Task: inverse folding
């Protein structure tokens, strides 16, 4: 009986931890759409240097280092790529980063 109770406790704790880890922002934080051009990819510290456009109600246009919520995106990005992402009030990380335009040299087929 003690094993069953212990197993239920461990499974419940794992479920709660997973639910907390999957949440990307606290409820109630306002989200904004971010657009910018990648200036540098910094894999060692899991960040991007981005020349970001002005985001009304959040931040003016500027070049800045941003942490990313999904470090695997760093393998897909390079300087010159145009990106879009979600940002949240009070949080300077980029969430759900997507490439929306490649550098001009990438549009040509490779031989």
Result:
């Amino acid at each position: 009986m003690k094993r069953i109770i212990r197993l239920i406790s461990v499974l419940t704790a794992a479920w709660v931890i997973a639910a907390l880890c999957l949440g990307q922002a606290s409820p109630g934080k306002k989200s904004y759409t971010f657009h910018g051009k990648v200036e540098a990819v910094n894999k060692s510290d899991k960040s991007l240097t981005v020349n970001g456009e002005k985001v009304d109600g959040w931040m003016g246009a500027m070049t800045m280092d941003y942490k990313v919520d999904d470090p695997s995106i760093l393998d897909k990005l390079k300087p010159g790529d145009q990106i879009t992402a979600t940002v949240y009030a009070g949080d300077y990380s980029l969430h759900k980063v997507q490439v929306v335009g490649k550098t001009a040299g990438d549009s040509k087929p490779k031989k």
Residues 28 and 89 are 10 Å apart (CA to CA). The chain has one helix and five strands.
